[in-house]
Specification:
heterodimer, A: 5-stranded mixed sheet, globular, B: mainly alpha, two-stranded antiparallel ribbon, 2 strands, 1% strand
């Protein structure tokens, strides 16, 4: 008898707690109630979650953690801004979770995902049954400055561009997992008729560089200023042959060229005759990767909050402190707003079906 | 050589600057407070603490971060031993013998052994690396994808060693692990493999949730079945801590060899701590004369992995510094910190900035010494946890285990995965299927597949004939299997029966004891059914793979087809035992009470899982333990209520507010508009 009494006490306590907790939202401030009459959204007492689609410690996460305090300062009401990580499916999991959820009373979720998801979604009519571009209200991108990079080969394998183009045996060029920006560029290089064989599967840029230094691959697309700085022997000991720029030209290579080295060095589209269609798809790939961190909220988020977030985001990204911190981390600051993302989507939508299928193939979708 | 000594001394001096040393001590205290929580602490705490390092000098910043890391690594071993819930996947191997020791009232001895071996491993690893810096670069550059493939194959071969007593079942478990590693997007072609269209499976089956479930949840069931504290025997004043310390020196050869193993594996980016620890465990088994106690509480099974785990940290750090390749999430965070501090990873860190690298090595050594000393001070209290009765211990640990499954990727799907793995783990324990091979297969599958395809794309099949690949395979196989072969040959050529008997006494055949036990205590029908499930699973995975292109289907077919044949063999064994069981196994089955408690615990695990899914972690952290205490444990309110409140407060303060873990509200709570009471209280505070 006493046992059953105990069980009932547990059940009653449970119900009491649920009832007590249910009362909480009724007592708390509704989303719009605390907003000042000026029309700006007041985030007082709210928590803004930056839901990053990758694990803690990576580039996306680091960027969000640097941005969080600036965003907190820029939002009216000084809300708590926290970074959550929801890795999975190349950030699609986080995007789908956040952008399809209903709005919350005291919380605003901002998802951070990779820009190539947008293009893949547009080109495929959605990803996993979810059209990200239709569900998202863009807040902006904080890393919008293009990062120049070149294709570099071992000096011992290739002496200059001419010997590369005349090779009968293709160069083994290393790539990542098959769906990264580098991989899209490499597929483009192969499609454009350059003599390359692609070796995909390296987990990140650092292992790719190690494989290059080991001689496992003949060439790599990770030839940026930061890579050249981390591997000073490449230029100082004349270990590499830069073949062409894949997006702009790294400053260190420009400097070397000004000193009379690498006279053949130019942009890839000028390295040999390339069709206009291929040039357009290369531009699209590069535009898509001019900044990779997309910040967006669900359409369910109140319009005033969307607008306030967009304004605060711009202010945070352009703040001197954020810029300094980004540069210390060798990351690329540079604001791109919702209109820039919309223009990018328009550009892809404006492609012919051939160009779309080519771009889709290059992106590995 | 002079520059090496100079840098070594300079590094030492920098570490003992007041600011750097003070920050290291502070970090150790923070790490100590958060380290007891399995799985959630290391990367999360480091990511949270990273912004505090912005204004520090490089040595100060790394004293702070590495100090926190060292204490967390040590705590991973401690939680494995005390709770049976591995602190991280790599430390599951310490659990195999460490937790049984805790059950036998020898938690103090196990902890003393693991702490001492950790310290010795960390010091040996760091000193060896410092001495080997001039040759680290060429060594690392000599190891490409073909060599990594060979090392991974070596790891797979060690599955046979980890399958002690049940070679067929062990190899099958390893095959399932390898097949599970192919779940997700194929790295070569992007083909979805066994994902059922679920986004959560695109990146594969999580190692953390599978490890938590397979070991943690299964151990909790055993704890409930026994209905005692973790320690089944009364623990002495401090449970033999000094005995554990002495064990390390008694088996100093093993400590030394495993430290070397860890150091070497740590240098090579890409293999990781999990492989290192399992290889160390396999080595501890294979290099021991008497292997009969492994898996049931042999201190050597604790010493080997403990030394390896910490010895590899120095190597990992060096790889991160010299190549910018992080071997783990924590190293990735450290890499981020390097860049913030303007430290550019690269070969220059081994030449121009060698004093800074040496300072990191010293931080590693000094922080380990302080951490271990601190742990020894509190060891008495830690050991006492093992005496708390299971009814009081289970609910908080179960909540932690569910949190461990969830927190790796902040995913409820992963939490459910850990529960499913838990049920599989429970079955494996009951039916004597070894669990380590499954984990090792899961870890090694991706390494094998990726390096196989890179090697094939680059060199064709010729990569198999590269000298270093052949050396690794031949040397590795010799080291791994020579003791077994030697024992078998010696037995065969024993000249007389007396000599043979004497040898068996001194040097028992490693598989005999467990084989005997498996035939006497495993229920035949469930064993047959489990074998059938394995057969169906492998068969289905092979069938699914047949339509894919070459790259995505290669590994599933190459592993799955032999696996299917082996599963058929196992079914044959199972059928034979089933038929024989009526005569042989009468009276040897699990007692009714054991069966009832296993079922009870299974149901409670389900209740907790569904409760968390419906009500969210925070509300559940109070209600579910309370329900368990009252309904299952029959505890009085004065005991049940404070512990339930304590669990809730810990979840809210430490995890939700302190570590910012984004706990979902729960489906029912969302639907009802229910919030956790702490949110309600915060709302009131805002009004005030």
């Amino acid at each position: 008898m006493r046992g059953w009494l105990g069980h009932w006490c547990v059940v009653l306590l449970l119900l009491a707690l649920v009832g007590c907790s249910t009362a909480a939202p009724a007592n708390s401030v509704p989303a719009s109630q605390g907003a000042p009459s000026t029309g700006t959204f007041d985030f007082k007492g709210k928590t803004v979650h930056l839901v990053v689609g990758y694990s803690a410690g990576g580039g996306f996460d680091a960027n969000a953690r640097l941005l969080a305090p600036e965003l907190q300062a820029a939002l009216a009401g000084n809300p708590t801004v926290v970074v959550d990580n929801q890795p999975g499916a190349d950030s699609l999991l986080a995007a789908k979770t956040v952008l399809t959820q209903s709005s919350k009373t005291d919380e605003v979720d901002v998802v951070v995902f990779v820009s190539t998801l947008l293009a893949k979604s547009v080109l495929n009519g959605g990803l996993d049954g979810f059209a990200i571009e239709k569900q998202a209200v863009f807040v902006g991108m904080p890393d919008g400055w293009p990062e120049p990079l070149a294709l570099c080969a071992h000096k011992s394998t290739v002496g200059n561009l001419e010997t590369f183009l005349s090779r009968s045996e293709p160069l083994k060029v290393g790539g990542l997992t098959g769906s990264s920006y580098y991989d899209a560029l490499l597929r483009w290089v192969k499609l454009a008729g350059f003599p390359v064989d692609l070796v995909f599967g390296y987990a990140a840029t650092a292992p790719l560089i190690l494989a290059f230094n080991q001689g496992e691959i003949d060439a790599l697309p990770a030839c940026r200023d930061q890579d050249l700085q981390q591997n000073p022997d490449w230029l100082n000991q004349d270990q590499i042959t830069p073949l062409f720029g894949l997006r702009g030209m790294p400053a260190a290579l420009k400097q070397a060229q000004a000193q009379g080295r690498y006279p053949w060095l130019k942009d890839v589209v000028d390295a040999k005759p390339i069709s206009d269609q291929l040039k357009a798809t290369l531009k699209a790939i590069n535009d898509l990767n001019t900044g990779t961190n997309v910040y967006a909220v669900s359409k369910q988020t109140p319009a005033a909050a969307q607008q306030a977030l967009q304004q605060a985001f711009q202010q945070a990204v352009l703040s001197a402190n954020y810029k300094t911190q980004m540069e210390k981390r060798q990351l690329e600051p540079g604001y791109r707003g919702p209109q820039d993302l919309a223009a990018l989507l328009d550009q892809i939508n404006g492609f012919s079906s051939d160009e779309k299928s080519q771009l889709s193939m290059l992106l590995g979708t | 050589m002079d520059f090496l000594v100079q840098a070594w001394v300079s590094g030492f001096v920098q570490v003992f600057q007041p600011a750097a040393f003070g920050l290291m001590c502070l970090a150790i205290v923070i790490g100590f407070l958060t380290g007891i929580i399995p799985f959630v602490s290391v990367p999360m705490v480091m990511a949270l603490m990273l912004p505090f390092t912005f204004g520090m000098s490089p040595v100060e910043a790394f004293s702070f971060l590495l100090g926190m890391l060292s204490v967390n690594i040590i705590f991973s071993d401690i939680t494995s031993i005390i709770f049976g819930v591995p602190g991280e996947p790599a430390t599951a191997s310490v659990l195999l013998d460490g937790h049984p020791m805790a059950k036998q009232g020898q938690a103090g001895r196990a902890l003393g052994a693991v702490l001492t071996s950790s310290l010795i491993g960390a010091i040996i690893g760091a000193v060896l690396l410092a001495a080997a810096i001039p040759i680290v670069l060429p060594i690392t550059l000599a190891f490409g994808s073909p060599e990594f493939f060979a090392l991974a194959i070596l790891g797979i071969l060690s599955i046979a060693v980890l399958s002690r007593g049940n070679i067929t079942k062990g190899v099958l478990a390893g095959i399932i692990g390898l097949l599970l590693s192919t779940v997700g997007l194929d790295p070569q072609s992007g083909t979805q493999r066994y994902t059922f269209g679920l986004l959560n499976l695109w990146d594969g089956v999580g190692l953390v949730p599978v490890t938590v479930g397979l070991f943690g949840v299964a151990e909790l069931t055993e704890l409930w079945v026994k209905q005692r504290g973790i320690a089944e025997i009364k623990v002495g004043k401090i449970g033999g801590v000094m005995e554990g310390v002495r064990d390390c020196f008694r088996h100093f050869g093993l400590t030394l060899r495993c430290s070397l193993l860890g150091t070497v594996i740590g240098i090579f980016p890409g293999l990781g701590g999990t492989v290192a620890q399992w290889l160390a465990y396999a080595h501890a088994v294979q290099s021991s004369k008497d292997t009969s106690r492994f898996g049931t509480g042999d201190v050597r099974g604790v010493i080997g992995p403990g030394a390896t785990m910490n010895a590899k940290e120095g190597g990992n750090l060096l790889t991160t510094v010299a190549f910018g390749i992080p071997a783990s999430v924590t190293m990735a965070i450290l890499l981020g910190a390097f860049i913030i501090q303007g430290v550019v990873p690269g070969p220059a860190m081994l030449t121009t900035h060698l004093d800074l690298t040496m300072a990191f090595v010293w931080i590693n050594i000094v922080s380990h010494i302080i951490s271990v000393a601190l742990c020894f001070i509190f060891l008495n209290q830690m050991v006492k946890i093992t005496e708390i009765r299971s009814a009081l211990l289970l609910p908080p640990i179960l909540m932690l285990a569910l949190l461990g499954g969830f927190a790796d990727r902040n995913s409820s799907f992963d939490m459910v995965t850990s529960v499913v793995a838990g049920f599989i783990g429970m079955a494996m324990v009951r039916l004597d299927w070894p669990r380590p091979p499954l984990i090792l297969g899961l870890v090694l599958g991706r390494i094998v597949e990726t390096n196989l395809f890179i090697s094939y794309s680059r060199y064709g099949v010729a990569f198999l004939t590269q000298p270093l690949v052949l050396v690794i395979l031949v040397f590795g196989a010799t080291v791994l299997f020579a003791p077994t072969v030697r024992r078998r040959l010696a037995r065969r050529f024993a000249m007389n029966e007396d000599a043979r008997m004497q040898m068996v006494d001194d040097d028992p055949e490693p598989f005999t004891t467990a084989e005997l036990s498996s035939t006497t205590r495993v229920p035949a029908v469930p064993d047959f059914v489990f074998g059938l499930c394995v057969l169906v699973l492998i068969g289905w995975m092979v069938w699914e793979a047949r339509g894919w292109s070459f790259a995505p289907r290669f590994l599933p077919l190459a592993i799955g087809i032999p696996g299917f044949v082996l599963a058929l063999v196992q079914i044959g064994f199972g059928t034979r035992r089933w038929l024989a069981s009526r005569q042989v196994l009468q009276g040897l089955r699990a007692t009714n009470i054991e069966r009832r408690r296993t079922l009870e615990m299974g149901l409670w695990v389900l209740v907790f899982t569904v409760g968390v899914l419906l009500l969210g972690f925070r509300i559940s952290a109070f209600l579910l333990p309370l329900a368990f205490f009252r309904l299952a444990g029959r505890e009085q309110w004065r005991i049940a209520l404070p512990i339930a409140v304590g669990t809730y407060v810990a979840f809210v303060i430490v995890f939700a507010r302190g570590l910012n873990i984004p706990f979902p509200n729960g489906m029912l709570a969302d639907w009802l508009g229910v919030q956790s009471p702490d949110s309600y209280l915060l709302g009131v505070l805002y009004h005030l």
